[in-house]
Amino acid sequence: MKLxxxxxxxxxxxxxxxxxxxxxxxxxxxxxxWDNQEESNRIVKQLKQLKNASEPWQKAFAxxxxxKELSEILRSDDIEFAAELKNNLVVLTKDVGTLEFSTLLDxxxxxxxxxxxxxxxxxxxxxxxxxxxxxRMYTRWAENRGYAVKLIDVLYGEEAGIKNVxxxxxxxxxxxxxxxxxGVHRLVRISPFDANKRRHTSFVSVDVIPEIEDAAxxxxxxxxxxxxxxxxxxxxGQHMQKTDSAVRxxxxxxxxxxxxxxxxxxxxxxxxxxxxxxxxLYVLEQQKKEAELAKHGTEKKKIEWGSQIRSYVMHPYTxxxxxxxxxxxxxxxxxxxxxxxxFIEAYLRSQKEKS
Length: 355
Known about the structure:
Elements: E1 4-7, E2 10-13, H1 14-28, H2 37-72, H3 79-102, E3 114-120, H4 125-144, E4 148-156, E5 162-170, H5 174-178, E6 183-190, E7 199-210, E8 225-230, E9 246-251, E10 256-260, H6 266-295, E11 308-313, E12 319-322, E13 328-329, H7 332-336, H8 341-354
Parallel strand pairs: 6-11
Antiparallel strand pairs: 1-2, 3-5, 3-7, 4-5, 6-7, 8-9, 9-10, 11-12, 12-13
Helix pairs in contact: 1-2, 2-3
């Protein structure tokens, strides 16, 4: 059986991964390795990613050979031992299935953290409430996986919910997972804000971009930036900011705007905004390159930034359905509590089959 692994740059056979680990380890042992701090840090990070990718497969291989050897000495009358081996094989099969799924995340930046934005659509309070529900869903999903969630910016609705919010979700492969969530999410329910208890349909758009630490080719010139400071908004109370610590930056040539008001320090808010601006500029450049390649007949996967990808129905029946993979479930509460992994996996597998 031929198994493959994923690393920062693509899919490699396990032998190639181990050879690369040996090569990088040898470089680290050479004299003067730490003289170039930037290059040495890059290699250390690369080595860590390779080891994180290879070690689970090596453990799975070792466990498989162990079970194989045990099965060869199994007596036909040892029912208890046979049952134990069977249970271990089921666990191993499940673990390998999880590892195989990880090979779906082989695109550039899939291993990165992500910046997630949620924007309410038309519909006033209904849409703002729906945006708040999605914020909770993604926060729960991230926390269940052990990811760190940082609120970058939020604009609250006039009556309830939020008009828009930006989060930084930090951890391995966050972008690889959450890139599947880009698009429009539709909610159908009996409105809690309608005295006549009528059914309402609300729309919210979700956007996800990777956090890019080393986009060296993206250079921000001060003359291209309109930097504004203002007082943070929020629910009020003792934590309300009393100084103009919030920062909004407009990249004049492209019109890209980002803002941050979560940190108490204006400097910290500015650094967060610059990180978002650079990430969005990098994505914009990548989209331009893909569009240019498409003109010359090169087939590229289209990113449907504004398409309706999923419907959440709470009345007259309960169902969540993804319109791209056709995966659906009737357990709406579980989905809204962060249980979106089946949707992510179904979409990634469907895309792999098409490629």
